[in-house]
């Protein structure tokens, strides 16, 4: 059984927010338009067939997306360097659904699975329920002691159902800085992680191998094993 963990990529979906030069908070999103419509293309085929071609404009850190190590470190690999075995991993879920807005959860607040090495560790804050709301930007996160444990255990990928794997007020950005330094990939804006609790699964997160992109949207899904 396959479980889709990806938000639908659509026009004006929730995106990241940055302050411009005047200090105004700007939210970025996607623009999706027909580049060529059926009506425009039909004369090319003597009106016996027609085709539509879409044009999509977006920043790569949007939707359900993956950060490559180059997102944080300019001398490391980009999205195109990621071999498929790095994108298909045994997965485990951390239950963090008790988190409050902007709360950092420590080792005392979460129960970690026994085996973490090489696995995709997905944190279920349940924050996808706030998708499209202001609360979505009040990001809960795992505190430094949890991140240190995950790094020490040698996980293969870190995924969250929030817009940022880090505390957004922490300029060091330890999740990105520590994990990407060890080539541990990060996937943000997941959804539906509650469906994976108590299940054995493989996690897939597949971007197209686009050279020069430091992040890119993925189709993320889990392949559940029979109980």
From TrEMBL:
Pfam families assigned: Cyclase
Range of residues in the leader sequence: none
Single GO biological process annotation from the record: L-tryptophan catabolic process to kynurenine
SUPFAM superfamilies, sorted: Putative cyclase
Highest rank taxon of the organism: Bacteria
GO molecular function, one term: arylformamidase activity
Listed name of the protein: Cyclase family protein
Organism: Lichenifustis flavocetrariae
Organism placement in taxonomy: Bacteria, Pseudomonadati, Pseudomonadota, Alphaproteobacteria, Hyphomicrobiales
